[in-house]
## 1
Amino acid sequence: MAIPSVMILPMLIVVFAGVYYVYNEVMRFMSKSMVRNKVVVITDAASGMGSECARLFHEGGARLVLCGPSWDKLESLYDSLCSGSDPSTTFSPKLVLLDFSDMENISEVITEIEESYGCVDVLICNSSMKVKAPVQNLSLDMDKTIMDVNYFGPVTLAKGLLPLMITRRAGQFVLVNSIQGKLALPFRTSYAASKHAVQAFFDCLRAEVEEYGISVSTISHTFINAVTESTTPSKTQPTNPLWAYISSKLKTHGVSPSALAHEIVRTVNWHRREVLLAHPIPWVALYTRSLIPSFFFAVVAAGVKDGHMDEQLN
C-alpha cells in the first residue's frame, strides 16, 4: 500500500529525529569512554565553567587534578563531585592550590601536579582575569597582573608540564580562550592583549610539539552566560542604528558554562585544533576585520562614541 504524500514529510522528520537521538547517545557514551583513566588537570576549576567541566570528566572516569586559588572552593567542588558518585567507576580528585596572580611558588605547584598521578594526559588552561575600562584609567600594575593571570600563568604551567609529556610522547594542551584573542575591542586593551598573546603562544606550541605526539587545542568563545540576562530594557539606547543592532546581539548571545564544558570534552576526545564558539555576529566581525578593516574600525568607533560599547561587551 502506497504511503500518502502528506505523510512523507512527518515520517522523514521522525526518522531524522531518531537518527539524531541515537547519534547523540552514541557520542555521549564514546565521550565518557575516551576520557576514562586519563589524568586531566583543570585550572580555575571552581569557576562556573571549570566546575561543570570537572563534573563531566569526573563522570567519564577521568583522574582529575583540580587547581584554583581558593582551598575552600576546591573542597566544596570535591564534595559535590564525590557525593553520590560510584567509587568503582570514578576517581577522587586531587586538589592543588594555584594562583596565577602569585607566581612565586609556581615551580612547587608544577611538582605537586606531576606527583599527583605521575603523569599528565590533558592540561585545560581555563583561568582568566577580565577588566573593563578606558586605557587611561588602567595602571601598569593592573596590566602586569592581567598578563600574569592570562598569559604568563598558563604559559609557565604549560612549559613546566611539557617535559613530562615529551618524555611520554603523549599529551594534550587545551586553551580555553576568549574570542578577543582574535578580535580586539575597545575598553579591553589589557585583556585583549593578554588573550592575543596566549593565543599566539599556543599556536606556535602546536607546531613545535606535533612531532612528539602532543596536540594543542584552542577554544575561543564569546562571553559566558553565568547568570540569566535581565529582561529589563536599558534606560538609554544607542543612537547609532547599526551599533544598536550589533550591541543587542552581543548582549543577548553568549555561551553557557554547560555548552562550553561539553565542547571541551569533545575537543579533548577528537583532538580538535581550533574551535570558535560564537553566534553569527562575531563570525561576521572576524571576517570583516580581515577583509574590510576600515569598515570594521568605523563601526567600532561609532559604538565608542555612542557610549554604550563598554556596557555591552564582556
## 2
Amino acid sequence: MLLRAVAASVAASVATARGLATAPRGEGRRLLFRQLFEASSCTYTYLLADAATGDAVIIDPVLETVPRDLRLLRELGLTLRYAANTHCHADHVTGSGALRRALGCSSAIGRESGASADLRLGEGDELRFGAFALRVVPTPGHTPGCVTFVLDDASMAFTGDALLVRGCGRTDFQQGCARTLHRSVHERIFSLPEECRVYPGHDYHGHTMSTVGEERRHNPRLTLSADAFVELMGNLQLPRPRLMDVAIPANLRCGIQDEP
C-alpha cells in the first residue's frame, strides 16, 4: 500500500513537471511574477513562472521589448512555454512571434480574434506551467476575441484591455461593442473574488494594479448602467491608434511581419 502511494506521488510529480497536471493549490507552490512596461504604448507585459520547475508563460509581450524579455528569462533560468496575447492589439506589435522563433515556445490567442497562433484559446482552456495554470475566460467587447487569463486559485486576473484600472478599453473599432464589454466585465470579471488582483493590459495614469472589489466600487465607467455605459463609450471621440495599420495585420499573424 505504501509503495503504491509513493509511486502515485512520484507519477503525479512527473506529470506536473511536464505540464500534464496541476499540483494542488496552496502549500508547496511558489509563483515567480514580474510586471514589465513598454513606454511608447504604455503596455504591461507579465511574466509568470513556477519557481520550482522554471516553466514560464508571458502575457502580452511587445516586439520592441523582446530583447529585454529574453535577457530576463535567461537571467532567471526560466523555460518559456507560452507567449500569450489577451487580444489582437491595435497599438503595438506583439512579441509572441519573435519569442516563438527564439525559444520554440507556443504562441496563444483567443480563437475569436481571427488571428493565427499555435493555440487558439476558448472557454475552459488552460495554459499550464509547472504546478500552475492560467484559466481562459472570454471577455469580448473591446474586440470579439478578448480573453482574460485567471490564475487557477483566482488570486490574479490579467484583463488585457477589457478592464483597466479605473477605466476600460475603447469599443469604436475592431468590431468592438460597448454593451458586450459591459456584460463581459460584470459577468466574467466582477464575479471573481473581491480580493482578486487585477492586472491590466495598459495604464496611462501611473497605476500598476487594482482588485476586483476596487473596480466594482470605484471604476467610473463600469459602475454605470449598461445604457449609460453605451452612451459614454459612443461619445469618447478618441484619436485613431497611430500604429493601427501596422499592428493589426502583423498581430493577425501573431506578430510575424516578414512571412506571408
## 3
Amino acid sequence: MDSCLMIWSMKPQMRAYRFVGHKDAVLCVQFSPSGHLVASGSRDKTVRLWIPSVKGESTVFKAHTGTVRSVHFSSDGQSLVTASDDKTIKVWTVHRQKFLFSLNQHINWVRCARFSPDGRLIVSSSDDKTVKLWDKTSRECIHSFCEHGGFVNHVDFHPSGNCIAAGGTDNTVKLWDVRMNRLLQHYQVHSSVVNSLSFHPSGNYLVTASSDSTLKILDLLEGRLLYTLHGHQGPATCVAFSRDGDLFASGGSDEQVMVWKTNFDADYGEAVKPQKYGSSVDGTHGTGTVSILEQRLTLTEDKLKECLENQQKIIQNKTN
C-alpha cells in the first residue's frame, strides 16, 4: 500500500532495497525464471519491469485502463501475462515490452492470471465467480469453471500442468483437472475469504492464506488439512513457496512478511516453523535495522536488452 517494492536478502544482516516508481499501491510482484527481472503491477494501472540491483532501475508500460492485480512470467521468461480491473487479461513480450493480445470474456474484475508450466495455456480468475482456461495460441476460452459461490481471488497451475487450484470469497479452495474439466477436490477449511495459494514444487502440498488470519497446508495426496499456521494478526493476504520448496513466505494486513521453513518429513507439528530472520515490511530486522535505498531511475532499453540476453544464456545453459 506504500507504493514501494521491497527486495529482501534471505541472509541475516543483509540489506533490503526499497524500489520507488509506482504512483499507487503495488498489488502483485514476481521474479522472472532467471531472477534477472522483477515484474510488478499496481493500482496506478501500470506494469513495471525492474532489475533487482542496488540501483533498482525500472521501465514502465501503460498496461491497462484499470488496476493491475496480477503479473506472471511464462516459464521461459519470454512472455508476461497481466490481469486487471478493466476485465481483461493481456499478454506481452518481455524483451520489447510489446503488447501481444487481450483475452476479453470476463464480465467483472480479473483478479489473477497464470501461464501453465508449458506455456500453452493461461488460467484466470475473476469477480464474475468464474475460473477460465484459455488456449494461448488460438486465444480462445477453452472452458469456464463456475463452481465457486463468490469472487475468485487466486488461481494457479499444479506443477504438472494437469490441474488448477483456486480460492475465493466463498471461503473454499477447489482443484480441477484441466484435461477432463472436472472438479477433483473441494476444501472448506477456512472461516473467511481465501486470498492466495501456492503449490509446493513436488505437487503434493498446497498452502493457502486467508482473511481468517491463518495459513493452511493441505495434503493433496491424502485430500486433507495437514497444518493450520497462526502468525499474522489480521488477514493473511499472500503466500508463496520458494522454488525449491524449502521455504514459503506470507504477507498480511499486519504489515509483516513472515518466512517459514518446511520439513514435511519431520514429526507432526514440527514441519512448519517461522524462521528467526522473518522481517517486517517497515524495514526492521530481527538482528538490526535494514538499510533502505531509495532510487528513482529509468531503465534504458539497452540495459533491459542486456538483462534479457543474460536470461536467455542461462536458460540455454540449463537446456544444454
## 4
Amino acid sequence: MSGMTPFVTPRVVAKKVLARQQYEGDGAIVRRSIGRPELKFLDPFLLLDEFSVSAPAGFPDHPHRGFETVTYMLEGAFTHEDFVGHKGTIKAGDLQWMTAGRGIVHTEMPAGPGVQHGLQLWVNLSSKDKMIEPKYQELQAKDIPKVEKDGVKATVIAGEALGIESPVYTRTPTMYLDFKMEAQAVLHQPIPESWNAFVYVLEGEASFGAPNSPPVGAHHTLVLSSGDGVSVWNNNVDSKPCRFVVIAGQPLNEPVVQHGPFVMNTRQEIVQTIQDYHLGRNGFEKASVWHSHIAQT
C-alpha cells in the first residue's frame, strides 16, 4: 500500500451523506443523496438516486424541463417511452443520457420480474441550453469503454480514466466513472481542478483521499474538496472488492429554481413552465393527449 499521491492538490472528503430510502413515483423505492435537505445541490448536479424497483412499482408518465437525466442500469432492465415516440429498454450495464431540454413527458418502468437496480443522476443545463430540443444518447454495455489495470476495473461512462475515453457527449461538461477495486488496489483519478466532484459507494468499502482515512461503505455520497484528483485505497484484508462511481462536473454558477421535475433559473420561468405544461405549448404540445402504453400494462 502506497501513501503517495501524484496530485498537487489531492482531493479529500469534505462532506459525507448517507443516502436514505424514500418512496418516489408509483411505489418505487430510491436511496437519495444529492437532492436531500443536507445536500440539496452540488452544481451542476441536482439529484442522485440509487433505485431498487420491482413491478408493478415504477415511474409512470411524468414531465421534465431544463436538465438531463442519466440512467445507468446495474441489474435488471427498465423500459422507457416518451410522448414523441421514443421507446426502448436499457439492461444491466446500459446507459441512457436523456436531455429533456424544453420538455419531455415520459415513463420509466421495470422491464422484467424481480428487482431492477440502477442509478439516476440529474445534470443541470445552462440557461442557454434549457430550452433546446430533447435528445437521447443510449449506449449498450458492450459499447461503453472498459479498462482494467493493477486490480482496478473502470467503466468509462463519461470523461476519461486509465487512459480510456468515453464517446458520450456531455453538454454540461461531466465525468462519470464506475470503478471496481480489488483488495489492496490503489487508484489515482485526475479530476479537472475547477469541477465539483463526488463519490457514491455501491459495494464494499474503501478509504478516499488519504490511505489512513476511515473506510466508507455502501450508500454513502462523499463530496470531495477542490483539487486536481482523488486517490482511493481498498485496504480490505478480507479480499473484498469495492465498487463506487466518481462523478464530477463543471459548475454552471447560475441560479437554480426547482419545482419538482422542472429546473429553471428564475421563479417566473417556473411559472411559465407550469403554464406551458398545463396548456400544452412550447414543447409540451402532446402532454395532455399522450399516455404511455408500458405504464398501463
